[in-house]
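Researcher: Good morning. I'm working through a list of sequences from a screen, and I'd like to move beyond sequence-only analysis. For each chain I'm collecting a predicted structure so we can compare shapes side by side. This is the next one on the list. No need for commentary yet; just the structure.
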Amino acid sequence: MIDLTIKEALEQLKSRKISATELTKAYLDRIDKYGKDLNCYITLTPERALQDAQESDKRYASGETLKLDGMPIGMKDLFATRGIKTTAASHIIDNFIPEYESTVSQKFIDAGTVLLGKTNLDEFAMGTFSKTSYFGAPVNPWQLEKRLTAGGSSGGTTSAVASGLAIGGTGTDTGGSIRFPCAITGLVGMKPTYGLCSRWGCIAFASSLDTPGPIARTVEDAALLLSAMAGYDSKDSTSSDKGFYFNGDLQPILTRSEKPIRVGVIKELMDVKISEDMKQLFQQRIADLKSGGAEIVEVSIPNILDALAAYYIIAPAEASSNLARYDGMRYGLRVEGSDIYDTFKKTRAAGFGDEVKRRMIIGTAVLSSESYEVYFMQAARVRRMIADSFNKAFTMCDLIVCPSSAGTALPLDSDLTPLEYYALDMFTVAMNLAGIPACSVPCGLAGNGLPLGMQVVGKRFDDMRVLQLAKHIEDFSKVDNRPTKIMGK
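Model: Good morning. Structure tokens for this chain:
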């Protein structure tokens, strides 16, 4: 049962070949077997999972099923879950139990999903390897003995889904935190259009960039998850009423139009250093799209190489503001000091990890009166230029493709500097700055047997077309990402 996709599992549940309780127990058993080695969950909820599954079985028996009834999922521990610990992988709120439910997690409840637990992540989603987690880093299930990164910040969810410890899950993408970990774990990760999925109840990192999205093994599964997550939310002022509807069938777009689909390749990224495997697989998938009827065109995003610098000014600035609320006064960790200011200092010094502190310091500095115009406003202007460049590029093409990462997963003990970690976001941050949808899809295996991914990027609210082209790439690539293939039974 572990190898079933969401689509296949729903079909078997509807035909009564399996029950939701049987499916859930299979995942809980696998968590018992591999959970400790992979460290992909912070909090497990087996009792809740079995209760959810029993309710799903009742609905299947009555014929009143919900969209994702009985699907055992992992919820990134950034989404508030009523009555269940929500930590953001940080010591400063590692005892926080919300009295409210985030919009995204509530939508999954309404869709009938089974909550297996809260998945691991970088502290407050700040990182690339999920190594900044207070609870230790999750591990990539591919070649487990090598102890490779599952990526970040949504590395706990990608580790869980790739290993068969969840059938699907949620992530958040601020600068590539869904797409990069999915690329190096052989999964499909969708960063929707900003505003398509509500951020209400999702612990904030950088509010103008944070984007909840689905993580799954197939493009169709990602579309099913996204259809449950998306929708207008009056509690989120940035929420859109555009919506996202998926009926379970991704229609091809390469062959159904009289005019060929124009697929853009970004000129400025062609000289960026990537592995030979990534280069060869990317070119092969481009050739496949061309043979399938797509017209390949070169487009220019002149400022895309400046996106990384702009991102690492804007995101820390917003983080500095968002994380000011964690002061030991209302909830979470409190370290008593000699007075209220000393309590603030001691609480935050003990509660935040080094990377969070680093970004908060950077953010506070660029927002200072001396630096605001020189750094923050300049970065905001670059952001606007990047968004405008994408808009211009989409007058020449329908969709854009590019690598999701420069290469395969690196060992967790890689000795990289903070700047080298930041550079791993090179291929992903521009889409967050522009607020446009992007989906990472497996494009093949490298010579070392590890997966690589490429992105499909679209115009705002062109999420369905992004997924449709991603499905073509998935079909061309034929990457076998079954959990029992990766890790065994």
